[in-house]
Amino acid sequence: MPERPVNGKVAVVTGASRGIGLAIARTLGRMGAKVAICARDAERLAAAARELEGSSMSMLAIPADITRPQDISALAQKTEQALGPIEILVNNAGIGHFGPFQQASEANWDAVLDTNLKAVFQLSRLVAPGMIERRSGHIINIASLAGKNAFAGGAIYCASKWGLLGLTQCMAEDLRAYGIRVSAICPGSVMTEFSQPGKKDAAKMLQPEDVAHAVEMILTQASQSFISEVLLRPTQKP
To answer: CA-to-CA distance for 154 and 142, rounded, in angstroms?
Structure first.
């Protein structure tokens, strides 16, 4: 295997202004990739871009709300114009809604499913034709152990992540004949702003860099095989 297998390749990371997405972008830059990051919050995104630029990596920051089809199209178009064809897509952006399902609204359902599931479908569908034409590419979906384990108050979030795992597995089957590898990473609780404060021991939780390391592992897998799913847990239960 080459020392830097993604050197010079173009990667897109959604939800990359902080937490897991920012850690993944940082890792991809260290690996030599040219990275486009996006997020809804333009101010936070600009701060993330300044941090990444300080590491001398080649990057582009594009404010985007991935629940809007026009923003998804603009993200792909601007990335390819500035950096080149998209060869790595990390669908990381996600939100949650927690509480008894009977108290949730349709708006809660739409917000979570549109972000965590529909946007992955839309963006992946947009970049897939180019990957098929080049007969190579990586799509990595950041799912969750909530896509495998039910818990009280997690109905909408769990539904989105169970759906994401099903989508990922079918995408992998549809695209593997073209040399495109589709994978899911399912972390447990990660120490980010997304985590519910006070619920768990922060010192025992996963760190964003742990998820970024799993992305690196997937991207450095030998070309004749692919890692379809990673279940990532802390050593000690938080």
So the answer is: 17
* Sign of the alpha-carbon torsion through 54, 56, 62, 65: negative
Report pLDDT digits (tens) over 16-31: 999 999 999 999 999 9
Give the type of residue at 27.
Answer: T
How do the domains of the chain map onto residue ranges? 10-232
Structure tokens, 76: 């792909």
Question: Low-confidence residues of the chain, pLDDT below 70?
Answer: 1-4, 195-199
Those residues with Cβ within 8 angstroms of residue 173's Cβ, 6 or more apart along the chain or in another chain:
none
Cα–Cα distance, 115 to 189 (Å, whole number)? 19
Instruction: Say what the pLDDT of residue 198 is.
Output: 57
Give the C-alpha separation, 174 to 31, whole Å. 28
What pTM did the predictor assign? 0.95
Residue-by-residue DSSP string for 47-107: HHHHHHHTTT--EEEEE--TTSHHHHHHHHHHHHHHT-SEEEEEE-------S-GGG--HH
Q: How buried is residue 185: exposed, middle or buried, by Cβ count under 10 Å (0-12/13-18/19+)? A: buried
Sheet of strand 10-13: strand arrangement: 59-63, 34-39, 10-13, 86-91, 137-142, 180-187, 229-232
pLDDT at 75: 98
Q: Which of 91, 100, 143, 94 is nearest to 121 (CA)?
A: 91
Query: What is d(CA 45, CA 146) in angstroms, rounded to the nearest whole number?
Result: 27
CATH entry 3.40.50.300 includes domain 10-232: no
Give catalytic residue positions.
157
